[in-house]
Design a protein that fits this description.
This protein is of the alpha/beta class. The protein contains seven helices and seven strands; from the N terminus they run ααββαβαβαβαββα. It has one domain: Glycerol-3-phosphate (1)-acyltransferase (3-Layer(aba) Sandwich), CATH 3.40.1130. It has a seven-stranded mixed beta sheet with strand order 1-7-6-2-5-3-4, with helices on both faces. α1 packs antiparallel against α2, α5 crosses α6 and α6 crosses α7. The longest helix is centred in the last third of the chain and has 24 residues.
Length: about 250
C-alpha cells in the first residue's frame, strides 16, 4: 500500500509540476513577485498532495520567531520536501542554488525571473563574492535569503558537514539568521521513491543576532540546528502513545 501511494504521489506531483510550469509562463511579463506566488502555490499543492495521498502532513513550529524584513534563513536539508515546506512560510524568499539548476528549461528560467541567487561552484572564492553581493542587494529589498548550510541533502542522523558559505553570508549581510531544524528525511527520503506516512516537523529556531565572529557563529548555528533536528528525529521515531520519561 505504501509503495502504491508513493508511486501515485510521484505521478501526480510531477504532472502538477508540469501544469504549474506551463501556467506560469505569462509571469515572464509580470513583476517578479508573480512567479513567487505561483511557486508558493505549487509548494502548497505539493504539501496537500503529500497529506492526502501518502498520509504525511507538515507541522510548523516557531513561526513567531521569524523577524520581519530582510534576514538569513539557514535550514537543515534532508529531503525535497524541505523546499515545499519552507516556500509558503517566507514572505519574499530567495534561494541560494547551484548555477546548473538555472539551465533547466522553464524551471531554471523561472528561478532567474524570481531573483534566485545561483552559485558557480567552479569559481571558488570568486563565487562567494558574487553570492554575497547579490544577497546584499536582495536583503536591502527586504527579502529572506534561504541557504542550506550543508550544500546538499543529507540522510537523517548523518554527520553534519556545514560549509563556510553561510558564515560569509552572515558576516556580509549583517542581519539576523534564523536556523531551521526538521525531520523530513524520515518521510520523503533522499533519492528514494518509497515515502512514509507521518508528520514532517519544520521548526524555526531562535534567531542568531548579527555581529558574532565567524567561528562563534558557525559553532552556534550547527549546535542549534543539529540538536533540534536530532530531537525531532527522536520524537518521530518514538512509538505512538509515548509521552516521554515517566509519562511526562
Amino acid at each position: 500500500m505504501i509503495a502504491a501511494r508513493s508511486l501515485l504521489f510521484s505521478i501526480v506531483f510531477y504532472l502538477n509540476t508540469v501544469v504549474m510550469l506551463i501556467a506560469a509562463i505569462p509571469t515572464f511579463l509580470m513583476p517578479r513577485t508573480a512567479i513567487l506566488r505561483v511557486a508558493q502555490t505549487w509548494a502548497k499543492i505539493s504539501v496537500f498532495l503529500l497529506r492526502v495521498i501518502v498520509g504525511t502532513r507538515v507541522e510548523y513550529r516557531g513561526l513567531d520567531r521569524i523577524p520581519p524584513g530582510g534576514l538569513l534563513v539557514a535550514s537543515k536539508h534532508q529531503s525535497f520536501a524541505d523546499i515545499h515546506a519552507l516556500l509558503p512560510k517566507l514572505r519574499d524568499p530567495t534561494f541560494i542554488l547551484k548555477r546548473e539548476l538555472t539551465w533547466i528549461p522553464l524551471f531554471g528560467w523561472f528561478t532567474i525571473k524570481a531573483g534566485m541567487i545561483p552559485v558557480d561552484r567552479s569559481r571558488g572564492a570568486a563565487a562567494i563574492g558574487d553570492m554575497n553581493r547579490r544577497a546584499r542587494d536582495e536583503v536591502l529589498r527586504g527579502r529572506q535569503i534561504l541557504i542550506y548550510p550543508e550544500g546538499t541533502r543529507r540522510h537523517p542522523g548523518a554527520a553534519p558537514t556545514y560549509r563556510q558559505g553561510v558564515a560569509h553570508l552572515y558576516r556580509s549581510l549583517g542581519v539576523p539568521c534564523v536556523p531551521v531544524a526538521l525531520n523530513s528525511g524520515l518521510f520523503w527520503p533522499r533519492r528514494r521513491l518509497l515515502m512514509q506516512p507521518g508528520t514532517i516537523v519544520v521548526e524555526f529556531l531562535e534567531p542568531i543576532a548579527p555581529g558574532l565572529e565567524r567561528e562563534e557563529f558557525m559553532a552556534l548555528l550547527e549546535a542549534r540546528i543539529e540538536r533540534a533536528s536530532n530531537r525531532l528525529l527522536d520524537e518521530a521515531r518514538q512509538p505512538r502513545g509515548y509521552t516521554g520519561p515517566e509519562g511526562i
